[in-house]
Amino acid sequence: MGDAEGPRPESLAEAFETLVDLRQEGLIRNLGVSNVTAEQVAEARGIAPIVCVQNMYNLAHRHDDDLIDRLATDGIAYVPFFPLGGFTPLQSEALSGVAARLRATPMSVALAWLLRCSPNILLIPGTSSTAHLHENIAGAGLSLSNEDAAELDGIGH
Ligand SMILES: NC(=O)c1ccc[n+]([C@@H]2O[C@H](COP(=O)([O-])OP(=O)(O)OC[C@H]3O[C@@H](n4cnc5c(N)ncnc54)[C@H](OP(=O)(O)O)[C@@H]3O)[C@@H](O)[C@H]2O)c1
Fold first, then answer.
1. Three-state DSSP class for 40?
2. What are the tens digits of pLDDT across the range 32-55?
3. CA 25 → CA 20, 30, 46, distances in Å?
4. Which one in 4, 48, 95, 134 has a CA-CA gap of 20 to 30 Å to 27?
5. CB within 8 A of 67, min separation 6: which ones?
6. pTM to 2 decimals?
7. Which residue has a Cα nearest atom 15 of ligand 1?
8. Ligand 1: which atom is nearest the Cα of residue 125?
9. CATH of segment(s) 51-156
10. Domain ranges (residues) in the chain
């Protein structure tokens, strides 16, 4: 509902109702919303059930912390876009420090942190490189200690 700057705080009813119509015609199975505020998520859910929200979220951009928790309680998936920072790749001493401790790469640690945030997080990190793909998949197998997680939490606060 917005642009690269983030969500535009306006009603999504007209656009969302078009999707609801397409769903009733059998052309769409499930509905989701993207680049939205918590208020717009509530507005959409007042019109029809949604299965997924896709918003910008990563170690450094934590605006949706509360929204993610609420969606998890209601069984709705959250897909962070720009999970690795998108056009401005994540860079942080704390991230590099934790990665060195785990003998992993910073990007795989950033993905492991996202997966640890909440059970409703669903990741689609973008890459054009097979080596990065393997690295990113390895993130799913990394286990972060509470100490690692606390250090990483500090990046976005
Ligand atoms: N709903 C929306 O409004 C919206 C907006 C933006 C994106 N999205 C979606 O969100 C998903 C992720 O977005 P994104 O791909 O733009 O952002 P991203 O996953 O945060 O970042 C992708 C960038 O990170 C690099 N990268 C990937 N793995 C890496 C690694 N292991 N080490 C170093 N660099 C690495 C990629 O370069 P290489 O190609 O060199 O690996 C690419 O430049 C996509 O599915 C996209 O379609 C949705």
1. helix
2. 999 999 999 999 999 999 999 999
3. 9, 12, 20
4. 4
5. 38, 41, 53, 55, 78
6. 0.94
7. 126
8. 19
9. 3.20.20.100
10. 51-156
